[in-house]
Amino acid sequence: MRKIVFIFSLSTLFFTLFACNSIAPTESKNVSEEEMKEPLLKANKYLLRQEEEDINDFVRRYRWNMEISGTGLRFMIDSIGAGSNVQYGNLVSLSYKVKLLTGETIYDSEISGLKEFVAGRGGVEAGLEEGIKLLRKGDRAKFVLPSHLAFGLLGDSDRIPPRSPIIYEIQVIDIK
To answer: Considering the entire predicted model, what is its pTM?
Structure first.
């Protein structure tokens, strides 16, 4: 019986403290779009700078001598094949490894099979689409795709986390 009275008293005290809250609600301030824009821009600039530093650290760590395109794609051709470069509309077959900046391999053609796509028609990361046009049959290359050229803010909903740069190590197997 004492236990029931104790629980009832405790429940009543809890209800009194939280249900009869005498604190007046604060007025909500309407924030304009312009007032929100500046802090969001600052946050995005900070995140972009941080990603840039992470990519630069990765490239330095592996001592890769990479070129940088206007979009931020880093690329390095390890060995040169033969023929003409990939053109819009070509069916391209690649062997590949996709890695995170941690060095972890997340996708591999030895497990998943060759990647095939039609150049210039989408369906692959924008950075891969841009970089593939620099290559010819037999070329081996490395691409570092900043997140905006990879899977962006959301990741791929599988193995690539949001806002993650990725590394492609590829070889062009065939161009048709």
So the answer is: 0.79
